[in-house]
Amino acid sequence: MSIEIYFTKMHGNGNDFIIIDNRISITEQIDVAKFVKTICRRNFHIGADGVIFLERITNGYVTMRYFNADGSEGEMCGNGARCFAKYVFDKGLVPKQMTLKTKSGLYGLTIIDDATVEITFPSYQVEEIKQIPDAAGGKIVYSVMVGVPHAVFFADAINKIATFEYENFARKIRYNKGLFPNGTNVNMVERISANRIYVRTYERGVERETYACGTGAIASSIIAASLKYVQPPVHVMMKGGELVVSFREQNGTFTNVKLTGRAETVFEGRFHIEVD
After folding, report:
1. By residue range, what is the domain housing residue 190?
2. Rounded CA gap, 91 and 86, in Å?
3. What is the Cα–Cα distance from 226 to 208, expressed in whole angstroms?
4. Catalytic center residues
5. Which of 33, 81, 168, 242 is deepest in the core (most CB within 10 A)?
6. 53 touches 65 (CB < 8 A)
């Protein structure tokens, strides 16, 4: 038997996602991990960094599940959440301001305009940031949980580093089970000015460098600010474009943490899959 699945392809600064309405319980009929790996495979199917399922809309909360391209389920995804917010708003399912429920908690989202969405993160304490000396190649690595785990290290002229070279180095940190038992995303950061940084992110679950990473922008900005490298708002330059991170910092606490950037629909379609 085959079932027909409707989808929407979206991206946030080149970080791309397939969004599917699962309120008819599609995931109960399929092997989710296998399905996600299949449709995320570039050149052979739709292709994406991850898949987002709309689970339910109840009592003012919109629930999503996020799966990485390798089929593993993620706690949440910053750019994915922003795309998802635009998706449910464009479908007329929610107002411009909404509360999103994920595995890692609740997040507020606001539709700013036709192509811009803002997500609000929880507060963070400076003591939540851990410093790890000599984590890889003698570099000091910082780590913080921003819904998902992120490691951050600073370097110069990072745009000159070849992708394969960065990915090989990042994997040494991502797969360091002694430091990160559940793995981690890895961000290479260069300070450009007092309110601008350049970030390249290797994403856990995608297992390569992506064009942008929302939680990576948050983690990199907060860590850079804790080191007095930058002050808000922080303009985060990534391969896929610019994200803006704003926050207030007082007495070692980061509050009103917001991520703003583009969220765009690429195309919509449908396909059939065979199920038992």
Report:
1. 124-262
2. 8
3. 27
4. 77, 213
5. 81
6. yes
